[in-house]
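STRUCTURE REQUEST FORM
Protein name: GNAT family N-acetyltransferase
Source organism: Algoriphagus ratkowskyi
Requested output: structure tokens
Priority: standard
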Amino acid sequence: MQTRKANSEDLPAIISLLKVSLGESLIPKSEELWKWKHISNPFGASPMLVADDNGLICGVRVFLRWEFRQGKKLIKACRAVDTAIHPDYQGKGLFKNLTLSLVEELKEEGVDLIYNTPNSQSTPGYLKMDWEKWGKLPLKMHFNLSLRKSKNQTFSDDWSSITPLFDKIENGTYTPEEIRTNLVSGYLHWRYVSCPLFPYHLISDGATYLLIYRIKEGKIGRELRIVDFFELPGFGENEKKQLNSRLKTVQKNNGVRFTSFSGLQYKKELPIELGHMPVMSIGPEVTLRKVANLEDVLNMPWAWSLGDLEVF
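Status: completed
Returned output:
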């Protein structure tokens, strides 16, 4: 058995392995999704290794390339995402071997850190490989329990009309205090417009603000998940009133039971009105692993959005 870099010819075997190992679950295993996620990514093609047993792909480990920025400082990162081991090869250390081998490759490339949001079953394995728990993402929540559930969801998105706004956002400045996703050219379109997993929607005046959200069905009703929010020069009181009026209309028309937003990006002066409930650490669990000689990654001024940490 050999561990090697994956190539384009391995894709059908990798998709087959994912289905055998993981099943379809909530996220479909398809070449379309794989290509969008690991090839079209504006941060670059994903580094991936496979375990090859005489022509049989029995294991795969993939990290999704990502970049963060704090002012002028660029942080090269990867997100530990797709991994699968064939049932006949599980329990033999392949997952650990593939993961640590890929970490060593990233060291040579100059990647600074790896982050992910593992579930409770996989977290212990990551901790044994020097991942560290950052904690659960704080969330700002607003409940709309008085709203009736709507049978029909209504959207009128025109992404093409805000292409100039995308350009302004992606060419904007970064605050030196907070660490956010590096908005390279094409990122917003890739992440939210062309995503094949679920539809994203927008609220915008086309000039001074952009709120991106998706509707997610849950046990207690529909969630309006604000995955990203951008405020641009020219945003004032009139724009704030318009934004919140439109948000309330979307909540009402779609029978939204609660709205969620990253607590790291929520501030008292934030234009989005989400009631008086305190920010609570109830979001996804984040783990980090240093690759380069960074400062204490657990105490860096992270400002992740929900869009940064969604499973996709």
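Reviewer notes: The chain has eight helices and twelve strands. The domain at 2-111 is CATH 3.40.630.30 (Aminopeptidase).
Form closed.
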